[in-house]
Amino acid sequence: MPDAMEGREAVELLARTRAVITPHLRATVESLPTSMRRVALDHFGWERTDGAPPGARAGTAIRPALVFAAATAFGGRPEAAVRAAAAVELLHTFTLLHDDVIDADATRHHRPTARTAFGIPDAVVVGDALLAFAPRLIAEDGHPAAAAASARLAACVVELRAGRQADRAFERRAPHDVSLDACLAMAMAKTGALLGCACALGALYAGAGEEEVAAMDAFGREAGLAFQLIDDLIGIWGDPGHAGEPAGADLAAHGKSLPVVAALGSGTPAAVELAALYEGAMGEGAVREAADAVERAGGRDWAQLHAADRMARAVDHLAGAVPDLTAAGELLALAEFVTRRSG
Amino acid sequence: MPDAMEGREAVELLARTRAVITPHLRATVESLPTSMRRVALDHFGWERTDGAPPGARAGTAIRPALVFAAATAFGGRPEAAVRAAAAVELLHTFTLLHDDVIDADATRHHRPTARTAFGIPDAVVVGDALLAFAPRLIAEDGHPAAAAASARLAACVVELRAGRQADRAFERRAPHDVSLDACLAMAMAKTGALLGCACALGALYAGAGEEEVAAMDAFGREAGLAFQLIDDLIGIWGDPGHAGEPAGADLAAHGKSLPVVAALGSGTPAAVELAALYEGAMGEGAVREAADAVERAGGRDWAQLHAADRMARAVDHLAGAVPDLTAAGELLALAEFVTRRSG
């Protein structure tokens, strides 16, 4: 199948996913008390408080799409997993609200964050409410897999938050004080855990066995790490598909993203340059020089190769759990899609 | 039974409760990744990071004690509800961690808050983790009431956070811009909801019917409102049983606590004085004058009478659900205990 076709399959899957889960997300938001509802409506882009016309925020819906695709791969009906898929998206949304508080971020996708538009208290409490609703959505569907799904969801939250905490702690450490292993573990927790959880939930809802569920979790985690590597590259050099997205903010914050840490540990002269830049404040010029040093130190190439390696591992896990890979076509299309962005 | 005996019964109940739930709370904390565990161990007072000798934080354990007492009132075995009781205490702990972020509080019970000792990111993520674990504890016990209990827990979190959000929003409003009704609704959400949830969970775990569970929720809510009224009085005039606790911080923050709002709406000359004081910054002198004005405007007497009225309503709900009040002795002792503090 040509690449363009595969990309289209993923785009269509994501659009179908958004159409199916949006009513559940909206019902959850509508059930919130007024003071919270306005914050959540604004965050999702359904009702803007800044006077701009409403327009749904371009959430990729990749996580709930993985739930559906995993259910399909094991012969399950995606419709049975719709609440689990919505719960996973609620968790993702909760992390965005709290991450903006943790990082004191003013904007996300060119719009003010809830933290900026409404303040820290509103962003914290609405995040709390969405986190509380995620297991409730699952508990409500009365599916035999609900209890196991809830336990996975809770463990996933803990891992996600530990990953976020490590990410934040790394920013304050000296350049050589973050090992590549620690950085990979952080990325696996911060990003891989929820993609793994999404795939595991889909398998659980299709009645897959324990080993298959574990393999799907591993597939999602490896694909998630590939996703994070590409995201880190975009964070430094921008997304060719989205010209104008600001790049370099992570470098400016002394972020220890994977390409940076790989570059720092390369033993090259460029690594020494990069470490020296990271000792000081990072203005616009320093950010450009740092990006250049990461590239010359091999951080960019390493990240691209390592993303491909992680995708290969993901496919290995998938092939172990779903021997007939044609059933796993949607999963492959989605994994391919999220790691294709760097062109 | 003489008052001193009743007070002793409650104290013993609370001590037994702490002994029973602490292993579950510790197991939850021990299961956290290291970076989160140290924050939680410090918050609970089990391992201090400030060099001070460890000593369990004097958590009253009133909420889990209500779970056990409610189970007992309906002939249930309290042991069957131990995970539900621990879950309720985890929720309470999560609210403390996030409230300190929301209010930017530096100390709690004379000790630095997690926000101060570890920073906003750590306080946010550890609160998130405890919130995620609460429904998991309940899901794990496989009790037939677990699903209903989880749904109540999630609804309770939303209400608690909406109450906290309102509390915070009220601080910024003009003195006459917060009605007593709005303030009572805020206190019911902020404090009553979790006490009501605790009582409802105990009844659920004892196999009580829907109406009985609703009545127990109402009992806990009314007792919780009485609790909040007494807490507001202590916040202004201090706790005679704990000389040295700083009072007046809420007045300094222009807090719209129940005695203050009742005083502001009293139509007395003292209400005008109080409103004028609240127009400006609240130094030490202004806080003293404001406390005096609240008293002269009748806010202190109103709060004490209204707390007694709420306790009477609580007992009415209880009597409707548990006709033989001797079975409800523990619930009455606990409710009496938490509203006795003002002497």
Question: Could you please describe the fold and organization of this structure?
Answer:
Two copies of one chain form a homodimer. Chain A is 72% helix and 1% strand. Chain A contains 15 helices and two strands. Chain A has a two-stranded antiparallel ribbon. In chain A, helix 1 (3-30) packs across helix 4.
Helix/strand layout:
The structure is a homodimer of 343-residue chains.
Chain A lengths: L2 H28 L3 H11 L17 H12 L8 H22 L3 E2 L2 E2 L1 H5 L1 H21 L5 H27 L7 H26 L4 H28 L11 H4 L5 H7 L4 H11 L4 H13 L2 H23 L7 H10 L5
Antiparallel strand pairs in A: 1-2
Helix pairs in contact in A: 1-3, 1-4, 1-15, 2-6, 3-4, 3-8, 3-15, 4-6, 4-7, 4-8, 6-7, 7-8, 8-9, 9-14, 11-13, 11-14, 12-13
User: Largest interface, with Cβ-Cβ < 8 Å?
Assistant: A-B, 43 and 42 residues
Q: H/E order of the elements of chain A?
A: HHHHEEHHHHHHHHHHH
Spatial strand arrangement across the major sheet of chain A = 1-2
Low-confidence stretches of chain A: none
Using only C-alpha atoms, the radius of gyration of chain A works out to: 20 Å
Assembly context of the chains: homodimer
Shape of chain A: globular
The main sheet of chain A comes to: 2 strands, antiparallel
- Roughly what percent helix of chain A? over 70%
Number of helices of chain A: 15
Q: Please identify the structural class of chain A as seen in this structure.
A: mainly alpha
Terminal Cα span of chain A: 18 Å
Determine the mean pLDDT of chain A: 89
Q: Provide the β-strand percentage band of chain A.
A: under 5%
Please provide the count of β strands of chain A: 2
